[in-house]
Design brief:
The chain is an all-alpha fold and 294 residues long. The protein has twelve helices and no strands.
């Protein structure tokens, strides 16, 4: 039975193959592109592409038309701003030049007034020097050099309170960092007999600048007046280290050596004085006094 069905299937399959073979030439000649469904799809794609091209073209033209005046406006805007910046730069340069010239003029005028005031000061014409300095301060109220000379004028006129006020203001201007101001204050205190105050101010000056031998010598003199002989000797010796051939320091050291009855030390400084200043008129007197020491 099963053999019968097998033969029937083989015969049917062979017949189908034969039919396909007979129609194969006709199938190969069919153009798929000519089918109605394919033609419709192609047509739709063509229409869509052309519509997209037209829309893009219109959008591009519209963009150019829209941006053209905007581009001109933007250009004009930046051109205007650039012109204003150029004018501003010219104005700033002009003002800077004017201010620079004004500063130069002020500085030159102050310098001239200061120079003239120094000449008056050296000539002992203190009131004229003061007038010049006050005129200079009217131009620049923060001039340290003017205040320093003004303080010296007041000291020369023995107007110590005004001198001290001027120096106190100078301390503010210099932020307490000018050794010379403290030295001037110390000298005023010393002249007025305020020895402890003078000591403090000399020490402040020395703390800012320890290379001024005159400060050490003046401090040594203050210690001697305070009857602190050891400090006086040590401070004067430090002064001599800074200025080894200074006759004034050697003179002080010989005197303090005599006061403390140190004959050997006195002769040491006397020998140094004879070496550096053999014509010193005090030498003979010192020899006489030292010889009397035990």
């Amino acid at each position: 039975m099963w053999l019968f069905f097998l033969i029937l299937i083989l015969i049917s399959s062979s017949y189908l193959v034969w039919l396909v073979w007979q129609k194969l030439p006709n199938l190969s000649n069919i153009n798929v592109g000519n089918l109605p469904e394919v033609q419709v799809k192609k047509k739709k794609d063509f229409i869509l592409k052309n519509r997209l091209k037209r829309d893009l073209g219109k959008l591009s033209d519209l963009g150019r038309a829209t941006l053209a005046p905007t581009k001109d406006k933007v250009f004009d805007f930046f051109k205007e701003k650039y012109s204003k910046l150029q004018e501003l730069e010219k104005d700033l340069r002009r003002r800077s030049h004017e201010q620079f010239n004004a500063v130069i003029t002020k500085a030159q005028k102050i310098e001239n007034l200061l120079l003239e005031a120094k000449q008056f000061f050296n000539a002992g014409e203190y009131s004229k020097a003061e007038d010049n300095l006050l005129e200079a301060l009217a131009i620049d109220q923060y001039s340290v050099e003017v205040y320093k000379l003004l303080a010296e004028v007041y000291r020369a006129k023995k107007e110590y309170e005004q001198a001290k006020e001027t120096l106190s203001y100078l301390l503010k201007l210099t932020h307490n960092e000018d050794a010379g101001v403290f030295t001037s204050l110390a000298e005023i205190s010393k002249v007025r007999g305020n020895l402890k105050e003078a000591e403090e101010e000399y020490l402040k000056s020395i703390s800012l600048s320890d290379e001024n031998h005159l400060n050490f010598l003046s401090l040594a003199e203050v210690y001697l007046e305070l009857d602190d002989k050891e400090q006086a000797l040590a401070t004067a010796q430090r002064s001599l280290l800074l200025s080894p051939n200074n006759p004034k320091i050697l003179d002080f050291l010989i005197n303090i050596s005599i006061i403390i009855q140190d004959k050997e030390l006195a002769n040491k400084y006397l020998a140094k004085l004879r070496e550096v200043n053999p014509e010193n008129q005090k030498i003979a007197h010192f020899i006489s006094v030292i010889d009397e020491l035990k």
